[in-house]
Amino acid sequence: MDKIEPFEIDCPELKKRLDSDDPPAILDVREPWETDLGMVVGAIAIPMGEVSQHVGELPRDRSLAVMCHHGGRSAQVTAWLRGQGFSRAMNVFGGIDAWSRLIDPDVPRY
Fold first, then answer.
1. Whole-structure pTM over 0.90, yes or no?
2. What is 8-102's CATH topology?
3. Listed residue (91, 17, 22, 25) closest to 57, CA to CA
4. Handedness of CA 70, 71, 76, 78 (dihedral sign)
5. HSE-up of 76 (CA within 13 Å, CB side)?
């Protein structure tokens, strides 16, 4: 049976997992103007409204951390992905704003 992740993780936990031997993929569902301001290195950028069209491009063989500005849009996408069988999809609580405040101050806040 596939591993089931918690629905939500915070940025310190995401950072810990990214530094591990089994890092999650990151899906950033913000709009292009937002990701142009800054994003987590290596993240997959697909705006929320386009995720359903690109779901086949997302990895199913590893955890998937879903991120937006503060966590609202990503929570909706995480719920949808779980309904599509992505049992390892996790919402990143606080989004890129929390990432900037807690982990990487080089990512601009807006």
1. yes
2. Oxidized Rhodanese; domain 1 (3.40.250)
3. 25
4. positive
5. 12
